[in-house]
Amino acid sequence: MILLIHEIKENRKSLLIWSVTVGLICYGCILLYKSVAGQLAEVADLYANMGEMTKALGLDKVSLATLDGYYATEIALMFGLGSGMFAAMLGVNSLSKEEEGHTSEFLYTLPYQRKTILLWKYLSVLVLILAFNVIATGLSLLGIWQLAMTFSYQSMFHYHLLSLLMQIELASLGFLISALSSKKQTGLAMGLVLLTYSLDMMVRIVPDLDKLKYLSPYYYASGADVFSQVDLDILLLIKAGAVILASLLFSMMILEKKDLKA
Fold first, then answer.
1. Which stretch of DSSP H or E encloses residue 191?
2. Residue 55, in any domain of the structure
3. Is residue 2 predicted with pLDDT exceeding 80?
4. Coil, strand or helix: which one is 7?
5. Which of 169, 158, 163, 154 has its CA nearest to residue 82?
6. How many domains does the chain have?
7. Quick one: which of 110, 107, 83, 85 has its CA closest to 95?
8. Within a domain: residue 60?
9. Gap between the Cα atoms of 75 and 255, Å rounded
10. Has residue 40 been placed in a domain?
11. Quick one: which H or E segment has residue 66?
């Protein structure tokens, strides 16, 4: 518990910066909708007929002329990338920062097994991700409430649950990278997020790449799919759970055998 509290305190500034920044961006764009709703209604057909790009952005399923469609595409895009980067960054820095900061000599001489320390660190990542979502999503909810327009709160809740799972999957992959590395790999974490997001867009554009959807957590955490009531492939959720569990187990195995740098 002491380690959990320490990790949360150590990351509190990063948590506040990322959550408030992403939340305020979403909040501001939501409030902007009312002033641009008329223009969006006029160009909705244009956006819906941009060929393959329409599919990539999910505009073949929802319309920007509605608040639901606007949230499912514009807001979900910003929230998805921001939350994914934060989660991946947390995971990839969690273990490796001890070696890079030369604090592993102290931490791993405490009367705790390595796997115990790893589990507390992983739990701290989950708590920080949950706190991020509470703050950022809360600001989005405030914006929707202030607009006082017709909106599907149920779809929003469903989307953010899937987004939370996506963040945990990315954080778990980052955690595995952190166990393998002796230095913070923040750039690699950002690259992982951008790669998986780009892969999601490619799969939606090119039908022949459909099987690659299992490689991108962004595929099941799609605002456009959720708000348009597209049936969710249960295999995607099973895959996400398997990736999370496997990443944690492999991280534990690696750390147990790793020759840590002082």
1. helix 186-205
2. no
3. no
4. helix
5. 163
6. 1
7. 107
8. no
9. 38
10. no
11. none
Are 255 and 118 spatial neighbours (Cβ–Cβ below 8 Å)?
yes
Give the C-alpha separation, 201 to 187, whole Å.
21
Calpha distance 210→203 (Å, rounded):
5
**DSSP per-residue letters across 205-256:** H-GGGGGGGGG-TTTTS-HHHHHTTPPP-HHHHHHHHHHHHHHHHHHHHHHH
Burial 113-137 (b: 16+ CB within 10 A, else e): ebeebbbbbbebbbbbbebbbebbb
Q: Render 104-169 in DSSP notation, one character per residue.
A: HHHHTTSSS-HHHHHHHHHHHHHHHHHHHHHHHHHHHHHHHHHHT----HHHHHHHHHHHHHHHHH
| DSSP string for residues in 14-42 | HHHHHHHHHHHHHHHHHHHHHHHHHHHHH
Q: Domain residues for 121?
A: 2-32+77-257
List pLDDT tens digits, range 28-79.
999 998 887 667 666 666 666 665 666 666 666 777 778 988 899 889 999 9
Give, in degrees to the nearest 5, the angle at Cα 70 between 84 and 80: 0
**Is 262 a domain residue?**
no
